[in-house]
Amino acid sequence: MPGRKKELNFEEAMNRLKEISEQMENNDIGLEESMQLFKEGMELSKYCNQKLDEAERKINVLTKGADDKVKEEKFIPEEE
């Protein structure tokens, strides 16, 4: 898995995470395979979180000003 996550885009990584989750939930797999899948899942999860963080930093919100001109503002996420 080390180089694999760099080959995947975000959607592919999320799909692989779903596959891993389904494998671990539905199949009778051994401890070693479970550990390998868990490790791969954790790496994919970290990769996806990094991609989401990058996207969040890049998002700009377009708004109309009082003069009806579109202006660009930095995206500031609301606190949860």
Strand arrangement in the largest pleated sheet = 1-2
Task: Report mean pLDDT, rounded to a whole number.
Answer: 82
Largest sheet, strands/sense/barrel: 2 strands, antiparallel
Global Rg: 19 Å
Class from secondary-structure proportions:
alpha+beta
Features:
single chain, 80 residues, alpha+beta, 3 helices
What layout of secondary structure does this protein have?
Elements: H1 4-7, H2 10-26, H3 31-58, E1 60-64, E2 70-74
Antiparallel strand pairs: 1-2
Overall description:
By secondary structure, the chain is an alpha+beta fold. The chain has three helices and two strands. The protein starts with a helix and ends in a 6-residue tail after the last strand. The model has no long low-confidence stretch (mean pLDDT 82). It has one domain (4-74). The chain has a two-stranded antiparallel ribbon with strand order 1-2. Helices cover 61% and strands 12% of the residues. β1 (60-64) and β2 (70-74) form a beta hairpin.
At a glance:
By secondary structure, this protein is an alpha+beta fold. It contains 3 helices and 2 strands. The chain has one domain (4-74).
